[in-house]
Write a structure and sequence with these properties.
It is found in: Membrane. The protein has 103 residues and is of the alpha+beta class. The protein is built from two helices and four strands, in the order αββββα. A hairpin with a 7-residue loop joins strand 2 and strand 3. The model has no long low-confidence stretch (mean pLDDT 81).
């Protein structure tokens, strides 16, 4: 059992602490890591371009409270362009999502 007074990483406060810590936190963190790695493998991330051909750099470091007086925050919405790193990759990714019944 983890003592209630143990030091917790600030990035894991949303999972609770002490005896009532979320039992699925490791699964959640690892799932997010795999999803991010998969996205980095599959896509080039680019800023959108405006009518004059200039990149529109959005406020990716801007956050908002999800609910009043809650410790969790979420980023403000921003636009991004995802370009597949390989030709035909988007079709394979869509087929994989359909196979897993995710779309």
């Amino acid at each position: 059992m983890i003592p209630v007074t143990s030091e917790a990483h600030p990035d894991q406060l949303g999972f609770g602490r002490g005896r009532r810590v979320c039992p699925g936190r490791d699964f959640a963190i690892n799932t997010m890591f795999i999803a991010c790695a998969y996205m980095l493998w599959a896509f080039h991330f680019e800023w959108p371009v405006d009518d004059q051909g200039k990149e529109v750099i959005c406020g990716v470091n801007e956050f908002r409270d999800t609910l009043p007086k809650v410790l969790t925050v979420s980023p403000t919405e921003f636009d991004i362009v995802l370009r597949p790193r390989k030709e035909g990759l988007e079709l394979r990714l869509l087929a994989a999502l359909k196979e897993q019944e995710m779309i």
